[in-house]
Design a protein that fits this description.
The chain crosses the membrane at residues 6-27, 48-70, 76-96, 117-134, 149-170, 177-195, 201-218, 225-246, 252-273, 310-328. It is a single chain. The protein is an all-alpha fold. It is 68% helix and 2% strand. It has helices at residues 2-29, 55-72, 78-103, 113-131, 152-171, 177-196, 199-219, 228-245, 252-255, 257-275, 287-294, 305-327, and strands at residues 139-142, 145-148. It has a two-stranded antiparallel sheet. α1 (2-29) runs antiparallel to α2 (55-72) and α5 (152-171) crosses α10. It is globular, with a radius of gyration of 19 Å.
Length: 330
């Protein structure tokens, strides 16, 4: 099954490589507006008009490929269905948000925050119900200690999915950052899936990784396309559910440290701004923009997007390795 999973990744990679150029051509042919750029970050001016919603291609590719392989090779299990469901539904939420921003003549702001949150919570509830068909113990694994949360486990799942989906969404702010960061994170979980013999989970994991690697070919600086909410929300919810399915929820605090950093920087900025009536801690948040505008201190020479990418990828890779070391030595 390991070879089969890698074959699925290859097929997803090829489909995404074929699909992205055609998606870009569609955007240009229809003269559709791209993802809005940030006026505060002058170096982003050149990004104006760049097509968005590229996540639709790699997510659909991963969903189709993994489903076909799972059905063909007997891996269409409740655990596979749960991971597939979360990826599909969070992608749908992101798609509706992106679609309204790009195509709607009346609502360029996308989905209302309340509507988006309700949809994310509803997906979490259904995910819990599906998951209970696999394991009805409601147990949370923290570094080997198993804690029975009873029905509070449903609340945990909702919080986990919503929180991480929005965290990855915040990370998707510069060329190539989210695509490779998430690919590294998912690779760590692929190792755990192999160790557990969960080839059903591995199948969809590698399908997503294959799609992400192909997407990066067109998303690295200078990006020809952005993934949009359809990609980032889906990836965040997906990685959260994978950590639950593999009973390694704690590991996401290390593997997903960058997503936490991005989210906390926004929370700190907003809170400090309100308390001090206009003062800021960072030049701009999420924190990758702080580094863009003034380096680590915020007052020096701004980092290039490539430098930010490499630093964030390296941190994710190192902490993912640390998480794996802890996991295999508990």
């Amino acid at each position: 099954m390991l070879i089969t999973a890698f074959l699925a990744a290859l097929v997803a990679l090829v489909l995404t490589m074929i699909g992205i150029p055609r998606f870009i051509m569609f955007f240009h042919k229809k003269k559709l507006g791209g993802q809005p750029t940030l006026e505060e970050v002058k170096q982003h001016a050149s990004k104006a008009g760049t097509p968005t919603m590229g996540g639709l291609v790699f997510v659909v590719s991963a969903l189709l490929v993994s489903a076909v392989f799972a059905l063909t090779f007997g891996q269409f299990t409740p655990m596979f269905i749960t991971a597939w469901w979360v990826l599909a539904m969070y992608a749908l939420i992101g798609f509706l948000d992106d679609f309204m921003k790009v195509f709607s003549q009346k609502n360029h702001g996308g989905l209302k925050a309340s509507h988006k949150l309700i949809a994310q919570i509803a997906t979490g509830i259904v995910s819990y119900l599906i998951l209970m068909q696999v394991d009805s113990t409601n147990v949370l694994n923290i570094l080997g200690w198993k804690i029975d949360l009873s029905w509070f486990f449903a609340i945990f799942i909702i919080f986990w999915l919503v929180g991480w989906s929005n965290a990855v969404n915040l990370t998707d702010g510069i060329d190539g950052l989210a695509s490779i960061t998430v690919a590294i994170s998912l690779s760590a979980y692929a190792v755990i899936a192999v160790a557990q013999g969960r080839y059903d989970v591995l199948l969809i994991l590698l399908s997503v990784i294959g799609g992400l690697l192909a997407f990066f070919v067109f998303n690295h600086k200078p990006a020809k396309i952005f993934m949009g909410d359809v990609g980032s929300l889906a990836l965040g919810g997906f990685i959260a559910m994978i950590s639950i399915l593999l009973h390694a929820e704690w590991s996401l605090l290390l593997i997903g440290f960058i997503y936490i950093l991005e989210t906390v920087s926004v929370m700190m900025q907003v809170s400090y701004f309100k308390v001090t009536h206009g003062k800021r801690i960072f030049r701009m948040t999420p924190i990758h923009h702080h580094f863009e505008l003034g380096g680590f201190s915020g007052k020096g020479k701004g980092w290039s997007e490539w430098k930010i990418d490499i630093v964030f990828w390296t941190v994710t890779a190192v902490l993912s390795l640390l998480a794996l070391l802890i996991y295999f030595n508990i």
